[in-house]
Amino acid sequence: MTVSRYLRNPEQVSLALREKIAVALDELGYIPNRAPDMLSNATSRAIGVLLPSLTNQVFADVLRGIEAVTDEAGYQTLVAHFGYNPQKEELQLRSLLGWNIDGVILTERSHTPGTLRMLEVAGIPVIEVMDCVTPCLDMAVGFDNVEAARQMTQAILKKGHRHTVYLGARLDERTLQKQRGYEKAMREAGLTPRSVMMEDASSFSAGGELLREAQRLYPETDSLFCTNDDLAVGAMFECQRQGLQVPAQMAIAGFHGHDIAQVVTPRLATVLTPRDRMGREAAALLLARIAGDHSVTEPLDVGFEIAEGGSI
After folding, report:
1. DSSP string, 90-124
2. pLDDT tier at 22 (50, 70, 90 boundaries)?
3. Phi/psi of residue 306, each to 5°?
4. Does 308 fall in a domain?
5. What is the widest separation between alpha-carbon atoms in the chain?
6. What is the Cα–Cα distance from 168 to 162, expressed in whole angstroms?
7. Is 234 within the bounds of a domain?
8. Which residue of 115, 124, 138, 219 has the fewest CB atoms within a 10 Å radius of its CB?
């Protein structure tokens, strides 16, 4: 009974006994099973996080921000990956809800009817990140992807480039939002928007492949706006391979401001997005809602910055 009390709340056991129990647990390699406790109590002190990618630095940064808050609050973070697949997101959400989570953080806006039904039945707080404009289910933290892409395209055009092509991969909802922002800026400037897209995952090699395809389809291409920094850096490497000077012969801009954007030469023009802050804000809002605070009713816009670097 004393050991059980220690595992539930160490402060209820005397310091001397705490030390003895801790040593015994360490020697035994004991791993507590929280599942029965999570399923029997009204709250589990655990939240779910559904991520579309485990290799994308964007979501790694968001998760780091989330855990900075949940760790401090004594909450467990249960992470599930769905690979940009709505059907897999539904399956992963079902699994997370089976652990009686107190709330969930989603990274997409498009969900299957099954996902929406489960969230309605669960009745737990839901917060969606990466976007502050698209209608959300409950709460949202993010930025305006369309406007960010529009402003980055305008920055390219202000440098005198007129044949800017948009490069996209995955074709997920944010890639399409950025495409709309790019097209808006091009049309506002009286120019014809042109995009080269692929359904495959984004990568450095994909950036080079998309650049070559843009050159084939639109030989006059003098600048690129890429949906992320991976594609942009890959396109820069391809320019080096071809002997093209950046930005004199090919201007290139990316999105998100990854660390590599700061160390390539020339420094990559990119949209700086506060992913760590986004994760922190989302976690803080979710935990506040779990605690009964319903004061937040509007999406939180964490903003973005345009960094022109030296590549445009």
Report:
1. HHHHHHHHTTT-SEEEES-S---HHHHHHHHHH--
2. confident
3. -95, 120
4. no
5. 77
6. 19
7. yes
8. 219
Q: How many CB atoms lie within 10 A of CB 298?
A: 9
Q: Are residues 26 and 50 in the same domain?
A: no
Asked if 227 and 180 count as a contact pair (C-beta separation under 8 A), the reply is no
- CA dist., res. 236 & res. 197, Å (int): 17
Are residues 78 and 127 located together in one domain of the fold?
yes
Residues 137 and 171 grouped into a single domain: no
Alpha-carbon distance of 80 to 299, in angstroms, equals: 24
Are both 66 and 127 inside the same structural domain?
yes
Claim to verify: residue 103 and residue 124 sit in the same structural domain: yes
> Contact, 70 vs 127, CB < 8 A?
no
Which amino acid, 168? G
- Give residue-wise pLDDT tens across range 111-150: 999 999 999 999 999 999 999 999 999 999 999 999 999 9
For 249-292, the pLDDT digits (tens) are: 999 999 999 999 999 999 999 999 999 999 999 999 999 999 99
Same domain, yes or no: 128 and 166:
no
Q: Is residue 27 part of a domain?
A: yes
Task: Establish if 13 belongs to a structural domain.
Answer: yes
> Are 174 and 94 part of one and the same domain?
no
Same domain, 123 and 199: no
- pTM for the whole thing? 0.86
CATH number of the domain bearing residue 238: 3.40.50.2300
pLDDT confidence of residue 40 = 56
DSSP state of 169: E
Q: Is the pLDDT of residue 39 over 60?
A: no
Average pLDDT over residues 7-16: 84
Range of the domain at 152: 145-272
Dig out the tokens for 116 from the structure.
Answer: 């929406």
Burial 20-55 (b: 16+ CB within 10 A, else e): ebeeeeeeeeeeeeeeeebeeeeebbbbbbbbbbee
Band the pLDDT of 31: cuts 50, 70, 90.
Answer: low
- Residues present in the chain in total: 312
Let me know: does 82 contact 107? Beta carbons within 8 Å: no
